[in-house]
TrEMBL record:
InterPro entries recorded: MFS (IPR011701), MFS_trans_sf (IPR036259)
Protein name: Solute carrier family 22 member 3
Pfam family, one: MFS_1
Parts of the chain that traverse the membrane: 169-190, 202-219, 225-244, 256-281, 287-305, 375-397, 403-425, 432-455, 467-488, 500-521, 527-546
Presence of keyword Kinase: no
Annotated GO MF terms: transmembrane transporter activity
Length: 599
């Protein structure tokens, strides 16, 4: 074939494939409009599936409450510490105070490596040196068996459990990184599994495994076993989150998917609020993890109610099962069965099946500069936003104020941020909202990084720094939520299925990188937030590579008259593909005005 004819042929094939996917989306949207969009049953299902993602949020951030030692921890001074009888000032002060105190069962104690512990005194001791609280002491491993002699706090953490203080603190940071590495693996693994087995298949098994893992934390005695179980919990948890997210998107037409994005953001914010209140009343890290069993148990109970993805059933030519799911949703929504609906289901199944067989890999986005630029910019924004969002929140143990209040307020701010974003969508394009959110979040984090750290946690300066970080974090989290909507715009229909798992994997990889800053923040109070701020301000300009206010491929719908097609619905093989004359393509009324259903 001549080269010019070959180029024409490839262009015609691409146009034909694009038409197939547009037909498939139009047919599926029209089918969902019959059952109600959204109907009462779909709203209930989105709420139940949101509980599944809420439990993952709790597991993601529960490490905040077992990241630091309990208050009032002191360690014995090692014999090799003294050099010719000379000791640091702050340790000498502690020795004097302890010798004058009523406690005589322990001779020499010293504070933890963080300056915040240098002004904590055991019961009966009073520090007389006002400058002592601003000094830092060299730390060693702490024999935590002396905690019971000096504190009556209910707090008990992983750091205290295995003595992960001072030079061993990097092991705790490693456990955070491995958990989010498991989340990365779980997203990719479930993306491959769900292609063959569906999004609901064996969901109850994964929920039960998560329950067993949470219960297992009460019995393991070795730190390596704890790390392994956290890794597995990351795999299962984020795999379930991926499945729940895909099920939620398949319940609504494409023009209403912003409702799913909002539901996911509400679920994340609510998870933080629940975690903050739960940890306030339960200060033992094991029992905090037991609290997450409530959400896993809810998942086991409601998964029998959630049907398989209607779109997946139609795409895999399981027409009979798709009809059962369709009629179930129709009955729950109290909608009437229209004439010829079986024919519509069968023809939609044939169209979706043909599109499913023509699915392409996300790598085709890298072949052309017109598609590679927005695709690369989107993934870069996803990585940076999730890195900063997770990283800044995981650093809360090193910031000022009450950690319980900070986590709760962060969740409430995240919910408020999503609501403000919905209101702004009436006046601003989505691209501009993402730019403003990322840029402002970066400025706030950078400003917080300019403020010196290591001051008293309840001081005005430290609380102000924490407030700036929380405000910056909510801006970044709002941008990360709406980036999912932008992803569905940027990705063509032909490779959206393959790219969905990649997007989730990039997000979890960013969280893993963000968790590494936990080690740095223990010694450098300003550097992590300066890095976060610079990265966010810089990557905010990547939004100019994204589409401004239009879909790359507008969703289409079928004409209602085409629902009553006189064909044999018992044999869908007779019509593997509808004729193009039977379909009428025209933009939705909402699409001509705005891609959002907000009025």
């Amino acid at each position: 074939m001549p080269p010019h004819r070959q180029g024409v042929s490839e262009s015609e094939d691409a146009t034909k494939d694009g038409t197939i996917f547009r037909k498939a989306e139009a047919a599926y949207n029209s089918l969902l409009h019959i059952v109600g969009s959204p109907g009462r049953y779909q709203i209930i299902l989105i709420f139940l599936l949101g509980l599944g993602t809420l439990s993952v949020t709790v597991n993601d951030y529960v490490s905040i409450f077992y990241a630091t030692p309990p208050t009032g921890i002191y360690c014995k001074i090692p014999e090799h510490h003294t050099t010719k009888g000379v000791m640091p000032d702050c340790i000498a002060q502690f020795i004097i105070e302890l010798q004058n105190s009523s406690k005589t069962d322990v001779d020499f104690l010293y504070a933890e490596i963080d300056p915040e512990y240098c002004y904590i005194t055991p019961p009966g001791a009073n520090l007389t040196n006002s400058d002592l609280e601003f000094r830092s002491c060299r730390g060693w491993n702490c024999p935590y068996d002396v905690i019971q002699n000096f504190t009556h706090e209910r707090e008990w953490t992983v750091v205290a459990q295995w003595g992960l203080s001072c030079e061993k603190y990097w092991l705790f940071t490693l456990s955070l990184v491995l958990y989010f590495t498991g989340a990365f693996v779980g997203t990719l693994l479930f993306e491959m599994v769900t292609r063959r087995l569906g999004f609901k298949s064996y969901m109850w098994v994964w929920f039960l495994i998560s329950v067993v893992l949470c219960l297992g934390f009460g019995f393991e005695k070795a730190f390596w076993l704890f790390v392994l179980m956290r890794f597995l919990l990351g795999v299962i948890g984020h795999g379930l989150r991926y499945s729940c997210t895909r099920l939620m998107f398949d319940l609504l037409p494409s023009e209403q998917r912003l409702g799913v994005v909002t539901a996911l953001a509400f679920s994340s914010g609510t998870g933080l609020v629940v975690l903050g209140m739960l940890a306030y009343f339960i200060m033992d890290w094991r029992f905090i993890l037991y609290g997450t069993l409530i959400f896993s148990a809810i998942g086991v109970s409601y998964q029998w109610t959630v049907p398989e993805s209607l779109q997946w059933l139609l795409s895999t030519s399981q027409t009979l099962q798709a009809q059962q799911v369709f009629y179930k949703i129709l009955a729950k929504n109290r909608q009437f069965v229209t004439a010829g609906v079986d024919a519509t289901i069968s023809s939609t199944s044939a169209t979706l099946s043909q599109a499913h067989q023509s699915d392409q890999t996300w790598r085709i986005m890298l072949r052309s500069p017109d598609t590679s630029r927005p695709f690369t910019a989107l993934l870069s924004l996803c990585f940076i936003c999730n890195m900063v969002s997770y990283g800044s929140l995981l650093l809360l143990p090193h910031l000022g104020g009450s950690i319980y209040l900070n986590v709760t307020v962060s969740g409430l701010l995240e919910i408020c941020g999503v609501v403000c974003g919905l209101l702004l969508l009436r006046r601003m394009s989505l691209c501009r909202i993402i730019f403003v959110s990322v840029f402002m979040g970066g400025l706030l984090c950078f400003t917080a990084g300019l403020i010196p750290g290591g001051l008293p946690k309840m001081g005005t300066v430290e609380i102000t720094r924490t407030a700036l970080i929380l405000l910056g974090r909510v801006c970044i989290a709002t941008a990360a939520a709406y980036l999912l909507e932008m992803f569905l715009r940027v990705m063509p229909l032909s490779c959206r299925n393959s790219a969905f798992g990649l997007y989730g994997a990039v997000a979890t990889f960013g969280a893993a990188v963000g968790s590494m800053f936990n080690q740095l923040a223990r010694f450098e109070y300003q550097v992590p937030f300066l890095v976060f701020g610079i990265l966010c301000v810089t990557c905010a300009f990547l939004t100019f590579a994204l589409p401004v206010d239009d879909f790359l491929e507008k969703p289409l719908v079928l004409d209602p008259e085409d629902f009553t097609i006189d064909r044999d619905v018992n044999n869908s093989a007779d019509y593997p593909e509808q004729d193009e004359e039977d379909l009428v393509f025209e933009p939705l009324p909402e699409m001509t005005r705005s891609p959002y259903i907000l009025s």
